[in-house]
Amino acid sequence: MGKEKIILTGDRPTGKLHIGHYVGSLKRRVELQNSGSFDKTFIFIADAQALTDNIDNPEKVRQNVIEVALDYLACGLDPEKSTIFIQSQIPELCELTFYYMDLVTVSRLQRNPTVKTEIQMRNFETSIPVGFFTYPISQAADITAFRATTVPVGEDQEPMIEQAREIVRRFNYIYG
Predict the structure, then answer these.
(1) CB neighbours of 81 closer than 8 A, spacing ≥ 6?
(2) Contact 131, 122 (CB under 8 A)
(3) What is its EC number (predicted)?
(4) pLDDT, tens only, 13-26
(5) Which of 10, 48, 79, 164 has the fewest CB atoms within 10 Å distance of its CB?
(6) Which domains does the chain have, with CATH numbers?
(7) Residue 145: count of CB within 10 angstroms of its CB
């Protein structure tokens, strides 16, 4: 028996999903879910991550969690085939993020091209919220907690996947 094939993907509930989301990722998720190629499919709403740059408007995030969940169902994601969950409802993700934080340096986070770009986009150059700055570590926890073997992301997120690999390698080296 081979290694279990597990897919993990999700969205930050910072606004309503739109046709760009459908064309860019949701349509593909439905195809992957229905392909029979995966033993498990996890699709999550990253509300904790959304708060990292929306801390002043938690109601917006809370309301968009509901909207994203409804959009998932409307576009064909099936709770009978995929586990759909809300990130903040899995406390172990926060715990794993906390452990991983000790494995990553500030300078390494600063070198992440995606983080650099997003800091500029959000005008955080002079004052970066710690939660926002460390969200690549949170993403690594999301990926590893579910033992994901496939994490479909856009090109802009590839540095995050590489950083997750680094964290896991270091964790496994230290803790076996």
Answers:
(1) 33, 34, 41
(2) no
(3) 6.1.1.2
(4) 998 899 989 998 99
(5) 79
(6) 6-175 (3.40.50.620)
(7) 16
